[in-house]
Design goal:
Layout lengths: L1 E2 L2 E2 L2 H24 L2 H18 L9 H18 L10 H4 L5 H19 L3 H12 L4 H8 L3 H22 L1 H4 L4
Antiparallel strand pairs: 1-2
Helix pairs in contact: 1-2, 1-3, 1-6, 2-3, 3-7, 5-8, 6-8, 7-8
Length: 179
């Protein structure tokens, strides 16, 4: 890799790689872990694995897809280690709604959705996070998760279907769209 001043060292190139992808990797890890400290740890582990495997990168996919795939694997490994979910900040610290009643309703709604998402099977959950929160295409999701586009679409469809069932079972007024 070269800069205006000449060739970049491996360390400089890797720093550029981290700076370019840090926010999106952190966002993915945060959506999966639900906790800033865990998301930071998962992000660091992602970039550590990327650094160690950089020489093995073949270029079959884009660098961002490769890094996302590493992040997905790190998150799935973390969840399979049965690490208990961390507590999030209370919604009233994040949301400055105009009334306490509205903040309470938003918190209850967010908790219901977050709990429903947490119960989805891992592949459906990851597909949902990548599609909704990271705004990736089904093709990008398929590349990241190592599956065909049709499988990514099916995982997303079933994630939405299961999410709707789970939300409806725990809170019928949310499923019907009433507020």
């Amino acid at each position: 890799m070269e800069s205006e001043l000449g060739p970049l060292s491996a360390t400089d190139a890797f720093e550029t790689l981290v700076e370019t992808h840090r926010a999106k990797v952190y966002g993915l890890c945060y959506r999966y872990s639900g906790n800033p400290a865990d998301a930071e740890d998962l992000s660091q582990e992602t970039f550590l694995r990327a650094y160690r495997g950089l020489e093995a990168f073949r270029g079959d996919a884009s660098l961002s897809t490769w890094i996302y795939r590493i992040a997905v694997n790190v998150c799935l490994s973390w969840i399979s280690a049965k690490k208990p979910p961390a507590q999030e900040l209370p919604a009233d610290l994040v949301d400055r709604g105009p009334s306490a009643l509205e903040r309470l309703h938003r918190r209850q709604t967010a908790d219901t959705v977050r709990n429903a998402v947490a119960t989805l099977p891992d592949r459906q959950r990851m597909t949902l996070v990548l599609r909704i929160y990271q705004e990736l295409s089904h093709k990008e999701i398929g590349d990241i998760m190592g599956c065909p586009v049709g499988t990514a679409k099916a995982n997303f469809f079933f994630a939405l279907k299961n999410l709707k069932k789970r939300i409806g079972a725990s809170s019928p007024e949310l499923q019907e769209g009433r507020s």
